From TrEMBL:
It is found in: Nucleus, Nucleolus. InterPro entries: Ribosome_biogenesis_Nop16. Pfam families: Nop16. One of its GO terms (cellular component) is nucleolus. Keywords: Nucleus. Belongs to the NOP16 family. PANTHER family: HSPC111 PROTEIN-RELATED (PTHR13243), NUCLEOLAR PROTEIN 16 (PTHR13243:SF1). This is Nucleolar protein 16. The lineage of its organism: Eukaryota, Metazoa, Chordata, Craniata, Vertebrata. One of its GO terms (biological process) is ribosomal large subunit biogenesis. Its main location: nucleus.
Amino acid sequence: MPKAKGKSRRQKYSYNLNRKRLYRSARRRAAPRIACSHIRHAWDPTKSVAQNLAEMGLAEDPNKAVPIPKKKLRGMEVESGGREQGKKIVRKPYVVNEMEYEASLPEKKSNTLSRDLIDYVRYMIQNHGENYKEMARDEKNYYQDTPKQIKRKINVYKNFYPEEYKDFIASLKQEKMDVQ
């Protein structure tokens, strides 16, 4: 398709346009993206960010919320500003309480090993026991792992699934006793 006429021409800069006002009004209209659901539900779009956070008992600027004390200069005390900020009224304390409760919950363990790695480790232990040099020469060692690498993989499996590893070793011992 041919180009539209006039698109290749340089745009003229409009000197009479007040861009500050345009930017401010666009900023007011756009609601902030909030990741925390507790804050999102308590957010009032008619109020400013500072007002919303103050009502929830949260700090807008951490540097102002917890000021760094000034150091003493060679035996002389430096006075702070002498101003004490008035305590702000927290109208929505449940937001902070919910966030603290959520933070106090224990973290879920999301570390898992792939099924292929588990099968690989089980195969090696089943066929070679603790002989890592034999494991390195095994035909199923597709990635040509060294004995130390194989040992490390087995240790990772032991750390991730200790009960499963113990049951597996116990079943191997049971099989050996049945064979004898």
